[in-house]
Zinc/iron-chelating domain-containing protein (Polaribacter sejongensis), 288 residues
Amino acid sequence: MQTTKLSTESILPLTCSRAGTCCFGKAVMLNPWELFSFSKEKKVSPKTFRDLYTDFGGIRLTFNGKQDKKGQNACSQYVENHGCSVHQGRPLACRLYPLGRQIQFEKADYIFEGPKFPCLTDCAEVLNLPKLSVGEYLKGQGAAPFEKAQDAYLNVMQNIADIAFELLLDSGLSASGDTKTLTLWREMGNESPELLAERIGKDWIDALMIPDITDIKENSIEFAQKHNDLLQLKAQEEFGCLQTLDQVHEACILIMGVALQLSRGLGADTKGIAELWIETAKSNGAKE
């Protein structure tokens, strides 16, 4: 799909008309900090919010509300004639909309998809409202801490994947001639998030999406770092005393599945990431 790259100085019709059309028929992915922020604004536990209002163990916001004229369901948090019921806790995707955010070579760019500015399709009235720079819009949306959380969780994702690399390459599994592991990495990269969540299992899905963090309320980077430490400790406890190569293989599949599921919550190209990790493993001696 065609994309238009923007700078923070780009001027666009970004003053929202508050029509609510963007609250229908979307796929809003969530990272653990965003799920936590939603639950805090909703005044429920992260587990309660996850179980009531998200799909696939917490990585996607449920859209099961009233349908619009196009037959698209509203977000589960949308209230007719009011708007978002948890606006202060909304995730980065909602704060950026209609913009997207791409990270290449550790640099973030803002984009919109399609040949023309998306809001004009359903909210042409924005043309009569003041225009804003991308930078002004992002500041007004309070996007910064959520962008920092997104970037921090990309690092968490890679750290989880690194455990899988260690299990494959440093345990003797790869040297044994194993070819099943990379085949399953590819399969998981192509798997639906629902099937991947089932493969990972409730214990690890809970550890991934609703970490037991109660002492960090506001700082998204500290939250992600604490979560990273908890996941590393859990992996060490579960995988530190594996006895057979079959056990190593199973652990390697499980933890890579966790990394790939997190990639979906981050809105990343899970299939592409799986292929990149497979090629990295092969360049270090793994076989397929």
Summary: The chain has two domains: 3-28+63-142, 145-283. The chain is about 50% helix and 10% strand. The longest strand covers residues 107-113.
